[in-house]
Amino acid sequence: MSGQGFKPKAFQKVYTRIDNITKATCTITAQGISNEEMAYVDGRPAQVVKINGEKVTLQVFPGTQGIATNAEVVFTGKPPSVKVSEEMRGRFFDAYGLPIDGGPAVEGEEREIGGPSANPVRRKQPSELIATGIAGIDLNNTLVTGQKIPFFADPDQPFNQVMADVALRAKADVIILGGMGMSNDDYLYFKTVFENAGALNRIISFMNTTENPPVERLLVPDMCLTTAEYFAVDKNAKVLVLLTDMTLFADALAIVSNRMDQIPSKDSMPGSLYSDLAKIYEKAVQLPSGGSITIVAVTTLSGGDITHAIPDNTGYITEGQLYLRRDTDISKVIIDPFRSLSRLKMLVIGKKTRKDHPQVMNACIRLYADAANARTKLDNGFDLTDYDRRCLDFAREYSRSLLAIDVNIEIEKMLDTAWSLFGAHFTKEEVAIKQEFVDKHWPKIAEKA
Length: 449
Description:
32% of the residues lie in helices and 22% in strands. By secondary structure, the protein is an alpha/beta fold. The protein has three domains: 13-75, Elongation Factor Tu (Ef-tu), domain 3 (Beta Barrel); 81-345, Rossmann fold (3-Layer(aba) Sandwich), CATH 3.40.50; 357-441, no CATH class. Mean pLDDT is 90; it is low at 1-5.
């Protein structure tokens, strides 16, 4: 959406004098302008970000380089919008909601993006399981429809691969992917994976790549969530929104804030960071009608720093977090069972899943912790007991069979796999699970009593 060839309509306000120009914004004197209203500055898309009396400041998405003080400024009279309909399924769009897949423009109802989140009175307590097929999530950190949760990952970890896997495996009616600051390789990876899997009919993607202006990333989450609200509210669909990478979204916020000469807060982030993130994450909702919006986002960490303003604020807003970590013992990336947490999992495990699920989950984590203690003893030169060695063997198999991100099995199979590991490495007493579950699920071929 370069704006080349853009011609103002008769009813649109046109100005030809710019009072001030910075690297990302320009200021004009105008009347009757609304906050967040879209405009074109010298044919380039822009948005109102500040109004002080008659002084109107616009954020120019592609930047202001080359714009003269007598350039034409045209206001559209409305904020950014997206056309929503069933035709969006299987399509790829840019940050403005325009197709980038070579297909035709979508015909549908035009809706303003960035509206308020659902009224609390209209919300229902989340109680429906949303299975991803990834054992490290479904077994230990089960997700619930209407939940908001981030992946915390180092930039060199395969978080986009995980997001693509979640998109393909998740039991949801509609998957909406928002890519911010993606490389072209990542964009093509998502497109190819979805096409090859034959899953395009339930996936909608909004993409901002590294070739696009960074400030355009700010539109992507609202484009995704306005579309999600259409399917969840109007169609009663179970919608999963995947956002990657929210750190690059926050960086775009900082770019605009700094170029407007606002005083930065912690880690050079704008003081509005918390509310900017909350405005996005609070769109997660379980509706009484059956529709829902679940948000899973990626927040990349700088040097693993969890105290940075972006993950720190994210942690206050969301309902848990999923950590990616490379397990050197098995040379695979796993969902870290110690640092990951889904605060809503107790609403569904053992209720929407098999009754032994909570006890199996707890036993796995306890035995994995015992293996970590055994590893510390080994590293410090202490002798290991037979139990220590069995814990270490269990931990390797547990990581390989259930924590690795490439494990794709149903929850019943996850639980059965855990029972097999219990029987292979421990006695019934060491596992310490209720007798009724042991009697029903303990593997018959287990050698240990």
